[in-house]
């Protein structure tokens, strides 16, 4: 008889049946994937970014394929928090999975407004996307300066009723410094990495492949960078980490967990293979069976 192995992990008092989540912006709010993936099997659905008002996003073209990945400059297009609560949260309520809402904004006040609106909704955690351009700082992202990250984390924590995950940008000099700033300001967890800034030029048309010129690089190409940053962050802070960046299967997930992540998010691979999340969950179970691991928590940060 096959032994029952524990895949449950806990982050800031929230227990997930397994450590596999969707990465924000790659899964909508689950509606688009509902016919492929049994959302009940996922540890959590992490929604697309939600702002206080509708955002139109960037001009097209906004997506370009690259070796081992993709560039996107969607610009966080979203219908705003009111539509999100009525439509997306209503849809997610029918599933036995945790719901993490990704929050974006152009000022601290924008973020706080969304956080307050979600305070009494059926939301388990908030993931704060600090890669948004801070309009008051000349469009530099909130997540690129430690003091700005500290400030926004502290302000959100004052108002948030749910545990707060700060999603860190890799486009910084020291990821450890950013992780420490988030922890010092009271973040309950951090998630990393967000996309790496990249560019592609169409040499036949002699122009940028994206209307925005630059975009966020995601996919397998960024995985070694992501694993390194998760490890560095895990050595710097004591709060839990959700690791992401190029995860395609259970083996990739195990690499992040051994580097120090408590949970993982599958992102770009959802576009390539809509079953990637379920296959990653199965892959983790297969790994635990192969190496006779009874509790997934034994493997978190086991590589020092």
Largest sheet: 8 strands, parallel
Unreliable stretches: none
Based on helices, strands and strand pairing, what is the structural class? Answer: alpha/beta
Please tell me the total number of domains.
1
Beta-strand share of residues = 15-25%
CATH-level-4 superfamily name = Aldolase class I
What would you say the CATH architecture is? Alpha-Beta Barrel
Bin the helical content: 25-40%
Counting DSSP E segments of at least 2 residues, the number of strands comes to: 16
The spatial strand order of the largest sheet comes to 3-16-15-10-9-8-7-4
Q: State the order of secondary-structure elements, H for helix, E for strand.
A: EEEEEEHEHEHEHEEEEEHEHEHH
Q: Enumerate how many helices there are, as a single number.
A: 8
Structural shape? globular
Specify the CATH class. Alpha Beta
Q: Give average pLDDT, whole number.
A: 95
CATH fold-level assignment: TIM Barrel
Radius of gyration: 18 Å
Concise overview:
The chain is of the alpha/beta class and about 300 residues long.
Layout: helices, strands, pairs:
Layout: E1 9-11, E2 14-16, E3 20-22, E4 44-46, E5 63-66, E6 69-72, H1 81-92, E7 98-103, H2 108-117, E8 125-129, H3 146-159, E9 164-167, H4 175-184, E10 189-192, E11 196-199, E12 201-202, E13 207-208, E14 214-218, H5 223-236, E15 241-244, H6 250-259, E16 263-266, H7 269-272, H8 276-290
Parallel strand pairs: 3-16, 4-7, 7-8, 8-9, 9-10, 10-15, 15-16
Antiparallel strand pairs: 1-2, 5-6, 6-14, 11-14, 12-13
């Amino acid at each position: 008889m096959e032994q029952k192995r524990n895949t449950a992990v806990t982050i800031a008092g929230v227990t997930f049946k397994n450590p596999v989540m969707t990465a924000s912006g790659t899964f909508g709010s689950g509606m688009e994937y509902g016919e492929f993936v049994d959302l009940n099997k996922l540890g959590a659905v992490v929604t697309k970014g939600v702002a206080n008002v509708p955002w139109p996003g960037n001009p097209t073209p906004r997506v370009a394929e690259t070796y081992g990945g993709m560039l996107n400059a969607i610009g966080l297009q979203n219908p705003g928090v009111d539509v999100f609560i009525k439509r997306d949260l209503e849809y997610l309520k029918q599933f036995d999975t945790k719901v993490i809402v990704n929050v974006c904004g152009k000022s601290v006040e924008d973020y706080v407004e969304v956080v307050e609106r979600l305070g009494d909704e059926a939301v388990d955690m908030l993931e704060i996307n600090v890669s948004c351009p801070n309009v008051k700082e000349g469009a530099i992202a909130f997540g690129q300066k430690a003091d700005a990250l500290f400030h926004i984390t502290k302000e959100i924590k004052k108002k948030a009723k749910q545990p707060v995950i700060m999603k860190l940008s890799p486009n910084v000099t020291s990821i450890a410094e950013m992780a420490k700033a988030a922890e010092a300001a009271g973040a309950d967890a951090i998630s990393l990495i967000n996309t790496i800034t990249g560019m592609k030029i169409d040499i036949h048309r002699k122009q940028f492949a994206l209307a925005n010129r630059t975009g966020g690089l995601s996919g397998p190409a960024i995985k070694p960078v992501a694993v390194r940053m998760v490890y560095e962050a895990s050595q710097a802070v004591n709060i839990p980490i959700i690791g992401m960046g190029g995860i395609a299967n259970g083996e990739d997930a195990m690499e992040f967990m051994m580097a120090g992540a408590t949970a993982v998010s599958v992102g770009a691979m959802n576009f390539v293979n809509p079953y990637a999340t379920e296959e990653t969950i199965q892959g983790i179970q297969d790994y635990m069976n192969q190496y006779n691991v009874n509790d997934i928590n034994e493997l978190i940060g086991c590589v020092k």
